[in-house]
Amino acid sequence: MIRKCVTFLLVLAAIFASPAAPQQPEHMKLFPPEKIEVPDSGVTIPMLEAGGRPLVVVYLNGKGPYPFLLDTGAFMVEMNDDLQAELALPAMSNAPSGVARLEALRVGEAVLHGLPVISFPRMPGLAGQNSPRGVLGASLFLGCVLTLDYPAKNVLIRKGALPSADNHRVFQYDAEDVLPRIPIRIAGHDFRPHLDSGSPGGVTLPVNSSSDLPLAEKPVQVGLARTPGGEFPVFSANLREPIHIGEYTLQTREITFSDIRPGPEPPVGNIGYEILREFVVALDSKNHRLQLTR
After folding, report:
1. Residues 154 and 213 in one domain
2. Which of 101, 135, 159 is the last residue in one of the domains?
3. In a 3-state reduction of DSSP, which class is residue 276?
4. Does residue 80 lie within any of the structural domains?
5. Model pLDDT for residues 54-85, shown as the tens digit of each residue
6. Following DSSP, what letter does each residue of 45-63 receive, concatenated?
7. Sign of torsion, CA 222 183 217 252?
8. How many Å is the Cα radius of gyration of the chain?
9. Which one of 1, 152, 218, 255 is most buried, counting C-beta atoms within 10 A?
């Protein structure tokens, strides 16, 4: 329904409304954790929720607990500036200005050592009992499979890799993609939006793709997202044809169009919580693979 999209965009606009919202430093993909420790038996931890986003409890340099968003749409650790000040983190050598060093981040029994961190003001629109103090990029778990089991509300971390892509349930994304992308098909048209657990919405595609798709009605503007890169109108419509991801046909026909993007690259869209909540989502960032199981 259109009203569901309106709710999503009000949340989205609130998150990006602040002119001080974080901007990813350039080339941060060159700064993976120095060391990752995961028990041979793996780790299973509860998945909490904040505004339709998975949230986990972490310990930073032995202090905590702190609630952090677990975001496939981020590739590093970001934290509220008051938390960075509280931890008195030092600047990280050989890194862009404004990047601090975190010695250890523990989630369950998994520990990431030697991490770059950027800070930003407390996230607007995400207050409450589980108000996050930061963001943990899901792609940091190199050499592991990180699984977001939405139906069971668990997060699993284990050593190893996903099987090779079969384009049914397991998908390959390009090595140069900093964030995981997943192929979708609508009425013979192929797209590769980001798989974004940090988005509370459904399927969002760039505005120019709306002219190629069989829509039940003309897209209606339902919001305006403000980001450090400018203001981006957001439109919503319903499709006449279903959305396919590998062997799966999505139940929704609702789609959003916006050119909002995390950086200077052209917009590619994203798939968020309204879709992902039906699946078990596994990410193998070392081999650039992801898996959906419904």
Report:
1. no
2. 159
3. helix
4. yes
5. 999 999 999 999 999 999 988 889 999 999 99
6. EE-EESSSSEEEEEEETTE
7. negative
8. 18
9. 255
